Amino acid sequence: GENVEQHPSTLSVQEGDSAVIKCTYSDSASNYFPWYKQELGKGPQLIIDIRSNVGEKKDQRIAVTLNKTAKHFSLHITETQPEDSAVYFCAASHPRGGSYIPTFGRGTSLIVHP
Amino acid sequence: DGGITQSPKYLFRKEGQNVTLSCEQNLNHDAMYWYRQDPGQGLRLIYYSQIVNDFQKGDIAEGYSVSREKKESFPLTVTSAQKNPTAFYLCASRPEGRTDTQYFGPGTRLTVL
CB of B38 within 8 Å of any CB in chain A? Predict the structure, then answer.
């Protein structure tokens, strides 16, 4: 089955700095890569996603890059703000039982210091 | 969280009791999912259902059961056979026609005493 590794597990930055979270996956059939932000005690919220036919996608301060050959993808947050502090999860979605089921990384706790 | 509701937010049960967690969505989504989240872990798939009256086991289905009698509802029962049931449980659903994007509810924290 699919295996998703996510690093780092904790990331501490100063407000205004950039933050980068990296994920690798194992199943070459995976073709959809969402990123979720989870605040304490809440459900994960989709913040950005990328499909395998695209190398990069940007949405304001957030960008995601995908390298299918190397099987890794990354989340980039620029000009971080304290409200960006949360746990971020990557996922790789692969075919399973007629649908695409995501396998999640273990999460990165991002702390943005004012 | 959109139109996905989970209730209650906090649930306490005694060891040996079965407990049912509610998940309802008014988004007309076809597929629904249950995940378990433990500290420092990713989300692990318990069960999923792509259509009414059909569901499949995920990676950690042992000790859990589900039903999908209505499109809007996908309740999860944590049975006494689940050895370590204390966790944060998340329900998700997928829009009709999409094969990948999932949207999550707010979660239920279950504590078994």
Answer: no
